[in-house]
Amino acid sequence: METIHPDVETVLFSEEDIAEMVKRLGAQISEDYKGKDLVLIAVLRGAVVFMGDLMRAIDAPLAIDFMAVSSYGDGAKSSGIVRIIKDLDIDIKGRDVLIVEDILDSGLTLKYLMKNLSSRNPASLEVCTFLWKDVEGKQAAIDPKYVGTHCPDAFVVGYGLDFAERYRNLPYVGILKPEVYE
């Protein structure tokens, strides 16, 4: 049994749950991209842990690259206005691109990113998200092709997800205690 961090209220997804999700996604992506020129693009920083595990679960040749973006809003919510902090180092023209994201909430930043990457003429462009947050009464701006799992509308940390750059290294995903971030 894993030790739960004192700031974490409850564990949503254990290391075992995560490993199973990654294995399932890796098998599906391997099948779907067989014989293709796959490029995984991680959105920094949260997706790094997920992409590290996911790329090892994919049994197909692939390249990786990274983008860092900043979205402007009130701090808690994205406005969809995005600034690219770190752009791709490789050319994606004619290649099959899979954006790897840690968590999908409003999807506004990802929608912008997809429009930007689409203008670079990839052969295909899809999204793989580790978590898809279920926000009551809200529909995400994009529909990812691959989803690890859905999660409740709570402040989740661990497995790359952070609060103030902390908790990314937790091996599980848990709900942060409200008193930590309020």
What features would you describe in this structure?
The structure is a single chain. With 182 residues, the chain is of the alpha/beta class. It is built from four helices and nine strands; from the N terminus they run E-H-E-H-E-E-E-H-E-E-E-E-H. It has helices at 15-32, 48-57, 108-118, 178-181; strands at residues 8-13, 38-44, 62-73, 78-86, 96-104, 124-134, 146-152, 156-157, 173-176. The strands form two sheets. A six-stranded mixed beta sheet has the order 4-3-2-5-6-7, with helices on both faces. The longest helix is centred in the N-terminal third of the chain and has 18 residues, at 15-32. The radius of gyration is 16 Å and the shape is globular. The two termini are 29 Å apart. The mean pLDDT is 92.
Taking all Cα atoms into account, the compactness measure Rg is 16 Å
Share of residues in helices: 10-25%
Number of helices: 4
Number of beta strands: 9
Tell me the strand order in the biggest sheet: 4-3-2-5-6-7
Mean pLDDT: 92
**Helix and strand run:** EHEHEEEHEEEEH
Question: Unreliable segments (pLDDT under 50, ≥5 consecutive)?
Answer: none
| Biggest pleated sheet | 6 strands, mixed
Q: Looking at the structure, what is the overall shape?
A: globular
Distance between the termini: 29 Å
Class from secondary-structure proportions: alpha/beta
- The fraction of residues in strands falls at 35-45%
